[in-house]
Design brief:
about 280 residues, alpha/beta, Metallo-beta-lactamase, Chain A, 2 domains, six-stranded mixed β-sheet, 9 helices, 13 strands, metal ion binding, EC 3.1.2.6
Length: about 280
């Protein structure tokens, strides 16, 4: 499968998940949409750039109910009234396939989706882990157009070197979402997040861990404008465990820097400091 980021609004990402033509009985490449806030744009990219006609669209995955992610659902439902719209709660517009933690379903032949509930940013946040089960494949090169075996769509739960605000939940919930649920995914799973917040996130991570080699490597990536400045779909779960301070709340250096008493308290203090714009390094 391939995953295509489609920038929408000022800093959001929608996505196309593309099947392999060889996996379809009719030999045609199929597509699923993820968080298509600007439905018309995502549909146009699918058609004009990848030859995906309307009959090749199979459904829509919604990571959570916030309008900058679910705002294209009604237009999708109007264009494709018989197709599934998956998501975690009835708050999601046009939802017709509600999913819960542990649910799974086939997206395309050989490509399966498993649903991981990560309540905190919103209580209906679902991270969709998508895996291509075809034999003989290896995880493709880094970059937005590389072939992927394993990908996770994290919405506003996990960002590159950051996480979402705790709008509807607690530090304990975000700790479990990041460091239990998502951390349990295979390390080579490629992360596709909901926003391009990486520069701000990395500035904060560097402020927390100034001389850390993993954070410094990420800083250098940003300075070189690696992958044209697009950071979604470049890093893996294993990378995030190394360069994301919100996934390093057990690290004594992180706890000491923010005065955290244990992992959950450290998560809470990190989020408060980031919200307040503190510990932001120049990068």
């Amino acid at each position: 499968m391939k995953v295509i980021p489609v920038p929408v609004r000022s800093d959001n990402y929608a996505y196309l998940i593309l099947s392999s033509p060889q996996s379809a009985s009719d030999g045609r490449q199929k597509a699923a949409f993820v968080d298509p806030f600007d439905f018309a744009k995502v549909r146009e990219v699918a058609r004009n750039d990848y030859g995906i006609e309307d009959e090749d669209v199979i459904g829509l995955l919604t990571t959570h109910h916030h309008a900058d992610h679910s705002g294209g659902n009604e237009a999708f439902a109007k264009a494709f009234p018989s197709l599934p719209i998956w998501g975690g709660s009835e708050q999601i517009p046009a939802l017709n396939k509600k999913v819960e933690h542990g649910d799974s379903f086939p997206l395309f032949p050989s490509i399966n989706v498993s649903c991981h509930a990560t309540p905190c940013h919103t209580q209906d946040s679902i991270c969709f882990f998508v895996e291509d089960g075809r034999e003989g494949l290896s995880q493709g090169p880094e970059g937005k157009d590389g072939e992927k075996l394993r990908a996770v769509f994290t919405g506003d739960t996990l960002f590159v070197s950051g996480c979402g605000r705790f709008f509807e939940g607690s530090a304990d919930e975000m700790h479990k979402a990041l460091n239990v649920v998502l951390a349990s995914l295979p390390g080579d799973t490629v992360v596709f997040c909901g926003h391009e917040y990486t520069k701000s996130n990395v500035a904060f991570s560097k402020g927390v861990l100034d001389a850390d080699e993993h954070v410094e490597r990420l800083v250098e990536d940003l300075r070189r404008q690696r992958n044209g400045g697009v950071t979604t779909g470049v890093y893996t779960i294993a990378d995030e465990k190394r360069h994301n301070v919100f996934m390093r709340v057990a690290d004594p250096a992180v706890q000491q820097k923010v005065g955290g008493q244990g992992e959950v308290d450290t998560m809470n203090k990190l989020r408060e400091l980031k919200n307040q714009g503190k510990l932001m390094a120049n990068i």
